[in-house]
């Protein structure tokens, strides 16, 4: 018998226990034997239930596939309030926060597969405001409707056209407007982004796209949320927003970009240039200082580690990691103090957000928000960069660039092309 079947049968046996005809929450868990035949993303995308959420930590040590919802939340604050009512259940809430952190799509899943290192488990959650006994019957039907995993379809669809918002001419105009605004003292930095709509002959399978990204975009968080059969948001992000274990907090400043190269020596040369380039160093330090200022009232002494190069498939980044201890374990504080960071919005934060809202020719929605989970014990969210929104046969790719004094429109256009290439080349095999 396959490990999944074994775990599901165990959960069904546990459901035979006596449950009250009253409101409540109950969690059932079964250990899951890991083997090479089970791929969580493939299994998840084979199901007909929604929402679906997949997440893999950038080290690869943690992974989750969650299906359906026991409870849904439209803000992280509401999710945190809920799980605090059940401190003994080790509840995890998974999903996305928008660029505007007040809006979220978060779920306490009906079914949750969770792996930490070599240990994995399958969890089933019952929740009802009326009757746990009745919800048990829904849960049994839910398990009965699960489907066997089917191989992911290949990414084979011809691209019909490509549309940039803004196009290059408008982009150059926006960069000039941004640098003028900075020169006038109204901003220190802003981050402008581009949305690229790729139109294909046939619908693109989101899980297939993320699966290819998992193989090629290493050292990244991988996330996928399918809202229904026709719409999903996914990405492979290099940037941690925060990781909290108890009161211990880790975050980082990932800002400053250079191209990568297949030749290690050339990549090293580009990385050395990035480490010594004044514009990129200033951009990174602006982010560091902003993070420290936002957190200083909420934590003990902040420690900023030395900068280093993070080398990815298409680009390299300057990264400085930051760690501290919070006065209290509160993920709402982490979200609102850290998102959006200066690396995805600018400085001062409010002025930069107003500039973006007025001049960017699209709405960011989930782009440059965050993806991950929260629980009472710990939480971790990545910044939802290198991301795509899939609507049927249209794939929208996002990429942004930090604009500071001295930013050159042509160089910034090349930078966002390099960033978008991390996902775009998955859809154009001839360019891999």
TrEMBL record:
GO terms for biological process: menaquinone biosynthetic process. The active site is at 189 (proton acceptor), 239 (proton donor). The keyword Magnesium applies. Keywords: Isomerase, Magnesium, Menaquinone biosynthesis, Metal-binding. Pathway: Quinol/quinone metabolism; 1,4-dihydroxy-2-naphthoate biosynthesis; 1,4-dihydroxy-2-naphthoate from chorismate: step 1/7; Quinol/quinone metabolism; menaquinone biosynthesis. Pfam families: Chorismate_bind. InterPro entries: ADC_synthase, Chorismate_C, IsoChor_synthase, MenF, MenF-like. It is an enzyme of class 5 (isomerase). Its cofactor is Mg(2+). Mg(2+) binds at residues 283, 415. Its EC number is 5.4.4.2. GO terms for molecular function: isochorismate synthase activity; magnesium ion binding. Catalyzes the conversion of chorismate to isochorismate. This is Isochorismate synthase MenF. It comes from Parasutterella muris.
